[in-house]
Amino acid sequence: MTFATTPLHRLLKRLGDGRGSRVLGAGLCVVLLSACSLSPDYQRPVLATPLQFKHAEGWTQARPADHVQRGHWWELYDDAQLNQLVDTLNRSNQTVAQYEAQYRQATALVRSSRGALFPSLDLSVGKTRSSQGTGSSSSSLSNNSSGIRNTYNAQLGVSWEVDLWGKLRETLNANQASAEASIAELASIRLSLQSELVQNYLQLRVIDAQKRLLEATVAAYQRSLRMTENQYRAGISGPDAVAQARTQLHTTEADLIDLAWQRAQYENAIAVLLGRAPADFALAPSTAIPALPSVPMQLPSQLLERRPDIAAAERRVMAANANIGVARAAYFPDLSLSMSGGYSSSSYSNWIELPNRFWSVGPSLAMTLFDAGRRSAEVDRTVAVYDQTAAQYRQTVLDGFREVENYLVQLRVYGDEAVVRQQALDAARQSLRLTENQYKAGLIGYLDVVNVQATALSNERSVLNLLQGRLLASVQLIAALGGGWDQTQADADRQALEPR
After folding, report:
1. Among candidates 497, 446, 111, which has minimal Cα distance to 245?
2. In a domain, 141, yes or no
3. CA distance 318 to 180
4. Among 209, 261, 300, 424, which one has the highest count of C-beta atoms within 10 angstroms of its own C-beta?
5. Angle formed by the axes of helices 80-92 and 94-115, nearest 10°
6. Domain span holding position 80
7. Does residue 371 sit within a domain?
């Protein structure tokens, strides 16, 4: 039996004749009705935005022709290995994967709410087998002496909820805003993790530099110890000088050993950020520290557009605003249009025949007349949620300005301090050379050398620690400015996550 001769095919053909088309067309004409919206007109929450950052004097203003590739802000540090690590994080980090899945859920909800705006078409085909007692009351129902009856049913139905008050449309708007917030949250968490990775990498490289410094210092102290021991054997210096030289050497060796676990901690943190077990990951030591980049600045108004967490906060306000309209629509009746038709017969052979046809069509109006204040309470709740999200948005913006101001002044102060620290280091190095020459000439005791050596080493490490602080502050400032994220990057993220 081919499909063209089946009862299902005949059902579809009968429902597609002229009369069925006229009934279906009359029902769908209601689509032309314009749904009204009960949500307040959305406006971005009012917030006083400064014209410029207080501590931005001397910084380079960002321009659209910025040579840095949009989104790849870590390339400012000009480190190929760092670039590879960040690329791996973007692909393999499990927290990013969680937020990507969360965004896919949000987009699926948008598609579902968009589908609610259109009619739904249902088809049911079935067979039922029933039995009834053989008493006199059932004898007229069936000529079958056993009382068993077969019923074949085929029904095609169309139903549609007319969105007169904008409830479905506002639900769609709320879900779309939530999806936009979700993609911005994804960008925000990715930026945060990228910042964490870059900071861990930079601190690890500074530890590599400290390790090289302490190794060179240990070698120098070993030479000083041998020289002091030779002088002691020659009767030039006493045993106290030898003890001081050994104390200084072993203390520095202990500091060198201590760096091992600090480096391991940063290495393990990087491994987890890359979605790998620490046992399966290692970073070879490097002989260079990434240079401190020149960070381009943004205007305060641009900060609101470039920070993904601020964008996410505003999208949540938009969703809350739309939900007010959904709650208000509950006061009004729901209008649904439905139409169904089909065939029902006790015999399969003449199932799809004109005498066995049935149909129904008509509107349905449903409205809650009394609910003891539940609808009013729901409206009040959605308004309160809107006020909450608006306050959260304002606070997010204020926190953004605070972070930028903090990192700006931190970098400026660190820059001034770096000049003085370098001058102190140069003076300490010169003092150490003079003191060592005087000790070799027998003009001073070894205690004087020890003190100068300790001062020089302290200054060396202070300069490295200050460089580390400046590098970390630069990363934090870039993240506080939104990295390279903007609406263009958001569109690229959205396209990359769309189902294929």
Report:
1. 446
2. no
3. 10
4. 209
5. 50
6. 36-114+166-332+376-497
7. no
What tokens were used for 289? 């520290």
Query: Angle, nearest 10°, between helix axes 487-497 and 94-115?
Result: 80
Taking only the tens place, the pLDDT of each residue in 44-103 is 887 777 767 776 665 555 544 334 445 689 999 999 999 999 999 999 999 999 999 999
Q: Name the pTM for this structure.
A: 0.81
CA atoms lying within 13 Å on the CB side of residue 272: 9
Query: How confident is the model over 282-323, as pLDDT tens digits?
Result: 999 998 999 998 887 777 888 888 889 999 999 999 999 999
Triad 71, 476, 213: Cα angle to 5°: 110
Amino acid sitting at position 331: Y
- Shared-domain flag, residues 225 and 345: no
Q: Are residues 187 and 56 in the same domain?
A: yes
Element (H, E) at 320: helix 308-328
Whose tokens are 């390339």? That residue is 75
User: To 5 degrees, how large is the angle CA 255–CA 261–CA 262?
Assistant: 80
As given in the structure block, the two tokens for residue 176 are 């779309």
Please check whether residues 393 and 297 belong to one and the same domain.
Answer: yes
From CA 73, how far away is CA 66, in angstroms rounded?
A: 11
Q: How far is CA 495 from CA 14, 107, 144, 183, 491, in A?
A: 44, 12, 64, 11, 6
Distance CA 180, CA 159 (A): 31
User: CB of 400 within 8 A of CB of 47?
Assistant: no
Are 490 and 314 in contact by the 8 Å Cβ rule? The answer is no
Residue 138 lies in a domain: no
